[in-house]
Amino acid sequence: MLENISPSRECCLYIGGPPIEHYLQWEPAPSSDEYEQYETSVIKHIIPYFAAHPPSRALLRLHFYRHCISLEQGRVAHISNWRWCIPFYVPLLSPSLLVLKALASSASLSLVHELETWPQFQDAPLAVTSLLALFPSLKTLRILTDSVLELLLQRDPISTGTDTIFPLLSTLKVQWPSRERVDDGELAHQRFLKHRRATGKPISVFEPIPWTTYPLPDMDYLEEHTGLLVRWPTAGGMKEYRCGDGRPEELRFRTFGLKYSQENGGS
């Protein structure tokens, strides 16, 4: 079908449907030749469009039970008909894919400054970082779980530096609750913050984002990251604290919440 549609700089490519997760799947699995044919067709549509309309936000949506990951239009402040969605077959995902090489060489995603990953990256293959490497100008990374940070830490151990993927990354937003603690007692975002600092590319802003029914945990362990601005939502708006200012109790969200509840008759 894609081969028979004329590409247009004013026509975006959207492969999916509402709800998208019910449509994005490869059954049966494509052969290498079939997938190369698919990639060639996709390239004809996305490169001209991105050249005329370079995106500033993007979303990685995972459907691992269907062996699929899609690169999509990121969240925008207004409803827009200009949406795009490019699915990838995870078992064939690698830096050598024609689509990835075309996106990298054309710098189509070089203006993306904010990336969101959804839903979870548990058990994701390391090859997924081939997609993450397409965003050299990324400044804000929003993740639903710490799992994507585990991928970055696997790809770039301390000897090489995670900043090889996101050299300009300054803001990290993490949805809570995140993954469970690992054996050494540190969550991936804490290890990631330490890693960025050790490689000379420290994160400037950290935003833990609570689910409606889950309070944030105590995060006073962040105090060691002197200069890190921690921002979190409250009923009265956003609050913030700069680590190293000597008031780590401000980061004890759960302790403060329980104390407030007890003082006001809660259980």
Instruction: Give the overall shape.
Output: elongated
How many structural domains does the protein architecture include? 2
Number of strands: 9
Query: Main β-sheet, in a few words?
Result: 9 strands, mixed
Provide the β-strand percentage band.
15-25%
Low-confidence parts: 18-22, 159-163, 179-183, 258-267
> What is Rg?
20 Å
The total count of helices amounts to 6
Structural class: alpha/beta
State the end-to-end distance.
Answer: 60 Å
Helix-residue proportion: 10-25%
Helix-strand pattern: HEEEHEHEHEHEEEH
Mean pLDDT: 80
In short:
With 267 residues, this protein is of the alpha/beta class. The protein has helices at 32-52, 98-106, 129-132, 147-155, 188-198, 253-263; strands spanning 57-63, 68-73, 85-89, 114-118, 140-143, 171-176, 205-210, 229-234, 237-242.
List keywords for this structure.
2 domains, nine-stranded mixed β-sheet, disordered C terminus, single chain, 267 residues, alpha/beta
Description of the molecule:
- This protein is an alpha/beta fold and 267 residues long.
- The protein has two domains: 1-108, no CATH class; 139-267, no CATH class.
- Helix content is 24%, strand content 19%.
- It contains six helices and nine strands.
- It has helices spanning 32-52, 98-106, 129-132, 147-155, 188-198, 253-263; strands at residues 57-63, 68-73, 85-89, 114-118, 140-143, 171-176, 205-210, 229-234, 237-242.
- A nine-stranded mixed sheet has the order 3-2-1-4-5-6-7-8-9, with no helix packed on it.
- The longest helix has 21 residues, at 32-52.
